[in-house]
Amino acid sequence: QVQLNESGGESVQAGGSLRLSCAASGRTFSIYTRGWFRQAPGKEREFVAAIRWSSGNTYYTDSVKGRFTISRDIAKNTVYLQMNSLKPEDTAVYYCAADRNNVMHTAPLEYDYWGQGTQVTVSS
């Protein structure tokens, strides 16, 4: 089993920045990809960004490219999501996730482990 613990969600003004963190514990050697998803009220959970743990290769959904950056600290077994130029439409609960498959996935169903979520609210 793998446990994921997110932190860093807050309420900010549009144009502001936040950094989310996701620390992993447990059988983390089984994880190939770590990702961030978000879910706004009344909407489905959607892919935001992911990072391949060994190579560091990153992937983003189009709406956050150029504004969000996913990174990892291998020693701390932690993934970060740096979010800049935040917009009201970025408001959501943000979840980190981990995938045991050695294939890059963007669908939530493909991920094996999930954190509890952290709320990000962007006001205009």
What is the structure about, briefly put?
The chain is mostly beta strands and 124 residues long. It has no helices and eleven strands.
- Which blocks of ≥5 consecutive residues have pLDDT under 50? none
Helix content: under 10%
Distance between the termini: 40 Å
Q: How many helical stretches?
A: 0
- Whole-angstrom Rg: 13 Å
Number of extended strands: 11
Bin the strand percentage. over 45%
Report on this structure.
It is a single chain. This protein is mainly β. Helix content is about 0%, strand content about 50%. The protein has no helices and 11 strands. It has strands spanning about 1-5, 10-15, 20-25, 35-40, 45-50, 60, 70-75, 80-85, 90-100, 115, 120-124. The strands form 2 sheets. Strands 2, 4, 5, 6, 9, 10 and 11 form a 7-stranded mixed β-sheet that branches. A hairpin with a 5-residue loop joins strand 5 (about 45-50) and strand 6. It is globular, with a radius of gyration of 13 Å. The protein starts with a strand and ends with a strand.
List the SSEs and their pairings.
Layout: E1 2-7, E2 11-13, E3 18-26, E4 33-39, E5 46-52, E6 58-60, E7 68-73, E8 78-83, E9 92-99, E10 113-114, E11 118-123
Parallel strand pairs: 2-11
Antiparallel strand pairs: 1-3, 3-8, 4-5, 4-9, 5-6, 7-8, 9-10, 9-11
